[in-house]
Structures are given as C-alpha cells and as structure tokens.
Amino acid sequence: MTVTKSAQGAAPSLRPARPRYGERVIEGGLFLAALTSIATTIAIIFAIFEPAVEFFLEPEITLTEFFGGTTWTPLFAESQRQFGVLPLVAATFTTSWIALVVAIPLGLGAAIYLAEYAQPKIRSTFKPILEILAGIPTVVYGYFALTFFTPTILKPIFGDSIGTFNMLSAGLIMGVMIIPVVASLSEDAITAVPQNLREGAYGMGSTKMQVSTRVVVPAAVSGIFAAIMLAVSRAVGETMIVALAAGKRSNFSFNPLDDGWTMTGFIVDAAQGDQPTGSIGYESLFAVAALLFVITFVLNIISIRLVRKYREEYE
Amino acid sequence: MSIQAPVRTEKGRALTARPHENLPKERAFRAVLLACLIFATFFLVVLFTYIIVRGAKRFDLALFTNQFSQVNPDTAGGQSAILGTIYLGLIVIVITVPLGTAAAVYLEEYADKTSRINRAIDVNIQNLAAVPSVVYGLLGLGVFVRFIFGEPTLLVGGLILSLLVLPVVIIAGREAIKAVPPSLREGSLGLGATRWQTNWRMVLPSAIPGIATGVILAVSRAIGEAAPLVVIGVGLITFNPDSLDDRFTALPILIFDTAKRPQEAFQDLSAALIIVSLILLIVLNGSAILIRNKFQRKW
Q1: Cross-strand pairs, B247
Q2: From the CB of residue B225, how many other CB atoms can be counted at a distance below 10 Å?
Q3: Do the Cβ atoms of B126 and A115 come within 8 Å?
Q4: Nearest CA in chain B to A104
Q5: Which CATH architecture has domain B62-295?
Q6: Which fold has domain A88-314?
Q7: How much is the ipTM here?
Q8: Structure confidence by residue, pLDDT tens digits, B155-210
Q9: Among the four residues A155, A158, B58, B231, which has the most C-beta atoms within 10 Å?
C-alpha cells in the first residue's frame, strides 16, 4: 500500500525510529473495514444481476416483451404468464411524479426560507420538525395514506371514481415524506452561495425576494438539481407507502385515481409469496430489482457529481 | 449545514434595504415560503393526532404481554415484534460501531485522498447510502437466506439492516473525526506517539459524541425499516427469539401486516404498535440530540 506518508508526512517526521509492524497491521485492518462498502456493492450487484440474467435467458422471455409489453403477470400459472414490465414502470412513474410535484416546491420553499429568511430561533423550531418528518418509518406513512388520507380526504373529493387503493394517495403522502430530502440538500447548496453575491445584488438595490430568486437560487442551481435527483431516486425506490396504499394489481395506467403496482410494490408482494429459488417468479423479482437498481444508481451518481461540483466551486 | 446561516442572516438583514421588506410582493413571497414549513408542521400534527387517537384504545398492557393473534385482534399484542426490534437494534449497534468507526478512521486519517481506490470507496459509500432499502432485501434473500443461512433468522435481519445503515455511520463518523482539530494530533505525534496511539487515544475519544450521534440515528433508521425484512421473508412469528439462529418478527413487519387487514380492530392495533415504534424513535433521537448538545466540544 502506498498510503499517505508523503501527503501528511511533510509535517515533522511521522517516520518511526524503528519499524512498527503493529501499526501496519492496524492500518490494513482499517482499510479492510473501508473495503466492506465496496464488497457490499459487489455483493448487491452480483445478488441481483445473476438471477436477473437467468430470467432473461429463459426461453419464454424476450427483451422486446419485457420492455414493450403492457401485461405483467409472471406469478400466474404457466399458460397465462406475461412479462411486459411497462405496467410496473407506469405505476412507479405516476406515484413518483405526484410525489415530486409535492416535494420539490415545498422542499425548496422551506429551504429558501430557512437559509435566507429565518432567524435563528425560527430555524431551531422548524429544523427538528423536518428531521422528525424524515425520521418517521415509511410504513407509518403508508398506514396514514391507506387508513386516513384515502378514505377521509380523497374519497369525499373524488367519490366513487377513486378506490381504496390508488396512486394519488400514495404519491401525495410520499411527497410529504420526501420534503426533508429536498429541503436539507437544497439548504446546504443555498448556504454555500458566497455572501458577496448577495451583497453585490443588494448594492444594486435589489429587494430580498429578487436576491433570493434571481441571485441565490440560480447560483445554487446545481446543488438544488442534485437534491431533486436524490428526491427522484427516493420516490422511485420508496416501497412501504406504495405497497400499502397503491394496490397490487398489475394494470397499465397513468391515471392517479387508479390502483397501481409499482416496481417496488411488486418486489415486496412477490417476495411474500415465497417463490421457489430458480423459478420464473423468483427470477422476475430480481429482473425488476435490477431495473430499479440501474435507475436509482444513475440518479444517485448524477446527484453525487453535482454536489461535488458546487462544493468545489465555492470552497 | 448550519454553520454559516446565523452569521449570514444577520449580515443579510443589516444590508437589506429596509423599506423593500414591506412591499406587498416581498411579504407575499416571504409568506409563501413560510407556508411550506407550516404545511410540514401541520401534516406532522395531523399524522400524530390521528395515530394517537386511533392507537390509544389499544395502547395497553396486553400490547406488551400478549403475542399477536389472527383471531383475537382486541387482545392481541406484539411482544415478539417489540423484542425482535430491540434485538435488531442491538445487533446493528454491535456490527456497525466497530466496522463503521474503523472505516471512518481509515478514510479520514490514513487514506490518500487522491488515490483511485479511496475515491472509489468515497463515491461508493455515498451511492450505497441512496440505494433503495428494498434492494438490500434482495441481497439478503438471494445471498444470506437462499444460499447461506437457509431461513430469515435474527442474525440475517441484523446483518442486512447493518449493511443498510453502515454508510450513515461511516459518513457521520468521518464528519466527527474531521472536526477534531489537527493540533491534538500534532501534539500527540510530537510527544512520540505512533499514528495508531494518536488515533486511539486522542482522535477517537474526541470524536465519540459525533460517532455516537451517527450510530443512534442509524439505529433509529434501521429499526423503522420494513421493506428489506419483508423481502427476506420475515413473517409473523408469535414466539420470542432465543438466539441469533431463531426466526423472528419485528415491529414494522407487524404494523405492515395489521395495516393491510380490513378489520378496524387490526388497524387500531396497528396504530398502537406505531405509537410504540414512534416512542422508540423519539427516545433514540432525543438521546442523540442530548449527546450532541452536551458532549460535543467546540474547539
């Protein structure tokens, strides 16, 4: 290992008077601990993609059907099985955009207020509230969506056109769950905007609102975009809310009032069915998970890159 | 996150042209922004009120002394689930504290930040922190359950949840270590201590409050997770686990199951169980805040 001696060693010599093998062993041990994260990633990729590949190698399944078909019934009897993943994608898309319509404006508004307007006392009241919101288990949100929000709020508005399970309720409640994600990352980005930009704008006679909307937010835009990417990733990967409130019937629909089976919802429901290892039902679980992993992975990487970029720009 | 805000706000206020603040447009904008936060607060109040009202009638001793029953929702409890969740939390602590701290020490104190492998580890940890929890469940199902252990035991559940929150512990640990001033290290090294002696006796003791806060928050996230446990096949088990090799159940699993049942009585039970898990979370988060305020040293 060619580790740091040169980087930090420039300061008064770190070089020991005699070789200390124990130090080396400890460093090696610590390095191994850090490597567990890489090992976890490799294990996840292997665990998901191996059965997913098996799935696509089944003679019954074609890539065109998987990505183009609009009926998803891999757990049915052999003669009725169909493998078009689009209904799951449509449901994930529908619940996600509803959630984002709630989470992005509210999260961003909260972030601007906390970073630009709030006095320390107000900040210290609202920050914990966002933290609690972020800390509530998602199964609790799911319970709330299913047993309160749908029957008490949505039913009276939409009447019979909305069912016990629907994507609107799941999406809206998921949106509230994601507000803290957007708010906290955006606030970081806004706080990182250097003060002299604001001072310059005030010097030109701008009002506070003009400074916020035309100087600060545009300057923080890459960080805000990173927050949004992470929010999308959270919405796509969110499981318990949709598993409880969105339903478990595969239908190809973008209508928020319909029920919908999302990718994550399918994974949870199918896994509960205890599919035998190696069966098509079991493999289909991993095929959907692979798709989910790829989507969230791309979103996360974009987000990480952007966060890094704005940090480098201003620090 | 919060370091610059107060200073900047004050400065910003001092610099703001006062008369502008009273323009209707300015006030409306400010009100809209504040409304976002008020909405979040309002939602939280409604959520808590609803859960408490619904759960109150079942928040009784039976909840803790009885096991779950499919036939008697009015007297059913959740003892095995409550115990299971506590055990899971303990397993997560035992696994993530040494592993997460070691990784954090390596990345902050030893790693050459320009080397490829260390940058890869860094990005990888951030990415892992954002992988959907249900995906960890499939790792558990495909590898731990189907290939190694054969069934979803307490150990498997604890392992999966540990892997899930390990990035949180590592990230918090790194922040805590970063906050220890270099002068401490330099003093120690100057007196002839080795690197490890310095880390073990100077850096880590100073970083303990930060690390503890991170661990507590990680545990509180872990014990709220249902998705990975559902996926590895944790079902409704109505006996208490005696060893790591026993099958088990957990609060989020029982909440999920009872919430799905159409009968009112089961849903009330679900709400009562939610109260239990919210109390657990509040105690954990409260102690994290306490540690943060009481022990965190300003250098």
Answers
A1: B153
A2: 27
A3: no
A4: B36
A5: Orthogonal Bundle (1.10)
A6: MetI-like fold (1.10.3720)
A7: 0.88
A8: 999 999 999 999 999 999 999 999 899 999 999 999 988 889 999 999 999 998 88
A9: B231
